[in-house]
Structure formats: structure tokens, C-alpha cells
Amino acid sequence: MSERPVTEVAVGVLVRPDGQFLLTSRPEGKVYAGYWEFPGGKVEPGETIEQALARELREELGIQIGAAHPWKVEMFDYPHALVRLNFCKVFDWTGEFQMLEGQQMAWADLPVQVKPVLPGTFPVLAWFAQERGHVGPTHLD
């Protein structure tokens, strides 16, 4: 039995000064279209996590990010792929947000009001809850 290849993914957890974080919906035509997640994408050969994140957020959202702060790494086994999600917090960016892939965006806090939330996003919401002393659900069902 062969092992499934791991897809490296850079994920941006953009946090505003008021503590709200950015979620975007997956565009039509992608697996889990309409589900909400933190923006990002696949790491291309030769890229660092930070370089991939900067490229993905430029391509998806039309923004230039400042420093990407590596935060957590989580393996997630989706039916279509085994992914290593490399979460980076981002506190500064420039440019106007543009939904260049036809997705939607929402600034959120706990519990997250948009739904459905992509399962790979649940751990991040739990980490935020732990950091912020949030008790109760982190998202709506």
C-alpha cells in the first residue's frame, strides 16, 4: 500500500487590530466550494511557506502582506488530498481587498457566524479560543 503524497499549503490568518480575523469562501469549481476557510494555497516547488503565502494572497485577494509569522502546522486528511496546513499569522498588509477568484470575504470573531466552515479551519478556531479565553462553540453548525 503506497502512502498518499502530502500537499504543502500556506494559510494566512489575517488579524486586524480589533482582533477580528479574515475568512474567505471557496470559489465555485473548487473542492468544497462555498465553505469558509482562512485564505491561502499550495506551495509551489522552490517556494518557502512565506513566499507561497505572499503569492497566494496577492493572486486571491489583491493584497501585499507584511511579515508572515509561522504559528501552527496541522495535517489534515481530506478525501481528495492529504494536506499539511502551515498557518501563519499576518498583522499588516497593503492594498484594497479584491475577490479575484469570485469568492466572498468576512471579518469574523468567535463564534464564527458564516457557514459552512471547512473542517480544516476548526483547529484554528480552537487555537483562537484557547488564546483568547473563549468558552463555548467556535462556529455555528
* Mean pLDDT over the residues: 94
Find the structural class using helix and strand composition: alpha+beta
Q: What does the main sheet amount to?
A: 4 strands, mixed
Order of helices and strands: EEEEHEEEEEH
Total helices: the number is 2
Order of strands, widest sheet: 4-1-7-6
| Percent of residues in beta strands | 25-35%
Write the layout of secondary structure elements.
Elements: E1 6-14, E2 21-25, E3 36-37, E4 40-42, H1 49-61, E5 64-65, E6 68-77, E7 82-90, E8 93-94, E9 105-108, H2 122-132
Parallel strand pairs: 1-7
Antiparallel strand pairs: 1-4, 2-3, 2-9, 5-8, 6-7
List keywords for this structure.
33% strand; 2 helices; alpha+beta; four-stranded mixed β-sheet
Structure write-up:
By secondary structure, the protein is an alpha+beta fold. It has one domain (6-132): Nucleoside Triphosphate Pyrophosphohydrolase, CATH 3.90.79. The protein has two helices and nine strands, in the order ββββαβββββα. It has helices at residues 49-61, 122-132, and strands at residues 6-14, 21-25, 36-37, 40-42, 64-65, 68-77, 82-90, 93-94, 105-108. The chain has a four-stranded mixed sheet with strand order 4-1-7-6, with helices on one face. Strands 3-2-9 form a three-stranded antiparallel sheet, with no helix packed on it. It has a two-stranded antiparallel ribbon with strand order 5-8. A hairpin with a 4-residue loop joins strand 6 and strand 7 (82-90). The chain is globular, with a radius of gyration of 15 Å. The N and C termini lie far apart (36 Å).
